[in-house]
Amino acid sequence: MVKNSFISVISQEEKEENRGSVEFQVFIFTNKIRRLTSHLELHRKDYLSQRGLRKILGKRQRLLSYLSKKNRIRYKELISQLDIRESKPR
């Protein structure tokens, strides 16, 4: 179920240079979320993994909201590259 196409979004050079960038952090969180989601499909009662997934989802959501406030163009590009749907404003 986990796609390998999203791994090629950020090239090797960018990974080494911009580890602290918002895009890279969202990319890493997205990989973790997809991995945990596939794990939880097999192990439905793994409550600690469910909690970890919720924590990572919250962190990614906060980073995405920060990016959408600071630079809407980069936010749209990142959403389209990672195939994450756009969150609804509150």
TrEMBL record:
InterPro entries: Ribosomal_uS15, Ribosomal_uS15_bac-type, uS15_NS1_RNA-bd_sf. Pfam families: Ribosomal_S15. GO terms for molecular function: structural constituent of ribosome. SUPFAM superfamilies: S15/NS1 RNA-binding domain. Its main location: plastid. CDD domains: Ribosomal_S15p_S13e. Keywords: Chloroplast, Plastid, Ribonucleoprotein, Ribosomal protein. GO terms for cellular component: chloroplast; ribonucleoprotein complex; ribosome. One of its GO terms (biological process) is translation. It is found in: Plastid, Chloroplast. PANTHER family: RIBOSOMAL PROTEIN S15, BACTERIAL AND ORGANELLAR, SMALL RIBOSOMAL SUBUNIT PROTEIN US15M. Belongs to the universal ribosomal protein uS15 family. Part of the 30S ribosomal subunit. This is Small ribosomal subunit protein uS15c. It comes from Salvertia convallariodora. The gene is rps15.
